Amino acid sequence: MTGSVTSDQFYKLDPGLMLEEQVDWYTDAGKENYFQNNVDRAKELLDEAGYDNELVTIMATRDYDHHYNAAIVLQQELEKLGMNVELSIIDWAAMQEEIYDPSAHDMFVSSFATRSIPHQFPVLSKRAEFAGWTQSEELDRLLDEIKLQETQEDARAVFAELQEQFYEDLPMINIGKFHTITSMDENVEGFDELVGPIFWNVSVND
Known about the structure:
Structural class: alpha/beta
Low-confidence stretches: none
Largest sheet: 3 strands, parallel
Oligomer: single chain
Helix content: 25-40%
Mean pLDDT: 92
CATH class of the domain at 2-120 and 174-183: Alpha Beta
Number of strands: 9
């Protein structure tokens, strides 16, 4: 993450798919499988998968520096494991089409903005048919089960199960959460931001 956004002031390593501020949903379930940083185990998994120096293509864009920077670091880290890795760097608009072509890449670097509910992450659902093509029937089952809960507390408990399953299936790699910077005049009070700017209760003091 430091290579992607330059400073730990601007990111957080966190297993949660939701933000800690989202108290109705946040959980650190699955944290034992997050950020293991275990090179020997990674090499073992490559051997178990039968990897034999096949070329691996990582797609990214330079339209967003943090995406490109993360791709560079990812390439370097995979090469340290003995993998044969190349970058495919294209513009963001083209990438939105190319990510749906499985012959164009083996992985791609992107990011998700904050989501209000778990169901808004397309990568969690096989039915969403999002690039990466999640194939987990269990994730879809748990998404459906969340909808059936009578209380938010019960829904969050099921989401914790879902996040555990997420780290078993790994439809995507969560490398961390990065922060954006918002500036405003010093006489603005009450402004907040989550999935976008929140303007209620905002006032301007002369």
